[in-house]
Design goal:
4-stranded antiparallel β-sheet, binds magnesium ion, about 325 residues, 2 domains, Rossmann fold, 8-stranded mixed β-sheet, alpha/beta, 11 helices, binds adenosine-5'-triphosphate
């Protein structure tokens, strides 16, 4: 049994002319001590899937399906019960670390307020634990940093502090939504390294959301690629990067720079853009942009089926077409 299992998740948001389905039958699992990645272009429903797990969707959103965490279905929990899971069992870090850090509170104050509120620690214990947390995320001079405000730190250091805040209750899972998108490449590598170390040393599980398959390949054990609210391909990251089977995954990878010496392949962006969730095309939602599309793609919705230890929603295998 996986630590977190999401089954047939559907999210409908209120729209001008009725509910709009932005997550449409998504399944995935986060295993203990592993990094699971959700990838896909902007608007594919990654954030909405994550917010559904935490019960943080916009008001009037409707959720269907099951989100099983340690045997309990989070979809069925009341808000009061959900509060004992959110932040404590499953914590979240965002692209902009200022989302979790109050600009007017010193880092020490922010950490100890959370520590005292959630763990009922005394002032002195909270202070001690705050220093430990900053050491854990490798903030230089943890004691001095307690007296600084978030804006005194660089973006990368702020993201480390946001991770420290997420770790306060010693959660089993951290959901990281584009945690490195706003950072430059070397700082990005530092944050990914930190998440990887927390996974290895503390057995933390991570649900990593990113549109960047380069980031994904450096840290995720398994990955699902989403397109227009649906998963189109899932599998072990290394294999999927090496041998994408869905034309959309192949397209995302072709648009990625390959810095290895001698690799002069031109970058090719996928033509067109994803459909609006109010007006998805029939059949395979990717077909209008797919160079491999055949007639049935325009009318039949491809189901996710097991192919060589992979789940794939495409009747046309780009590898098969090429050879
Ligand atoms: N509050 C909202 N009300 C209505 N529609 C929304 C709302 N927030 C997001 N959406 C729509 O829901 C769909 C899925 O959005 P979501 O934020 O999950 O995408 P995403 O994959 O996280 O994209 P990104 O990479 O840009 O963060 C998009 O079409 C988006 O326009
Ligand atoms: Mg998002």
């Amino acid at each position: 049994m996986s630590l977190l299992e999401v089954e047939n998740l559907r999210v409908h948001l209120p729209g001008a002319s009725g509910p709009v389905t932005v997550v449409d039958g998504v399944d995935f699992a986060v295993e203990e001590g592993q990094v699971f990645g959700l990838a896909g272009e902007s608007g594919s429903g990654k954030t909405m899937s994550a917010l559904a797990v935490l019960g943080l969707l916009p008001r009037r959103a409707q959720v269907e399906g099951r989100i099983i965490y340690r045997g309990r279905d989070l979809v069925a929990l009341r808000e009061r019960e959900m509060r004992s899971v959110r932040g404590r069992e499953i914590a979240m870090i965002f692209q902009d670390p200022m989302t979790s850090l109050h600009p007017m509170l010193t880092v020490g104050r922010a950490l100890s307020e959370h520590l005292r509120q959630h763990l009922k620690l005394s002032r002195a214990d909270a202070q001690r634990r705050a220093v430990e947390l900053l050491e854990e995320v490798r903030i230089p001079d943890p004691e001095g940093s307690l007296r600084s405000y978030p804006h005194h730190f660089s973006g990368g250091m702020r993201q480390r502090i946001a991770i420290a805040v997420a770790l306060i209750c010693n959660p089993s899972i951290v959901i990281a939504d584009e945690p490195t998108t706003a950072l430059d490449v070397t700082v990005q590598a530092g944050i990914l390294g930190l998440l990887d170390r927390l996974r290895q040393e503390n057995g933390l599980s991570v649900l990593l959301i990113t549109h960047d398959l380069g980031v994904m390949s450096s840290i995720a054990d398994r990955v699902s690629v989403m397109y227009a609210g649906r998963i189109v391909e899932s599998g072990a990251t290394a294999e999927m990067m090496q041998r994408p089977r869905h034309p959309y995954t192949e397209g995302l990878l072709s648009a990625l720079p390959h810095p290895e010496a001698g690799d002069e392949r031109p970058l090719v962006a996928i033509p067109g853009s994803p459909p609006a969730p109010t007006d998805p095309p029939p059949g395979c939602r990717f077909h209008p942009r797919c160079t491999y599309a055949v007639d049935s793609c325009r009318t039949q919705v491809p189901q996710l089926v097991e192919v060589d230890a992979r789940r794939l929603a495409c009747p046309v295998d780009p590898l098969a077409v090429k050879v």
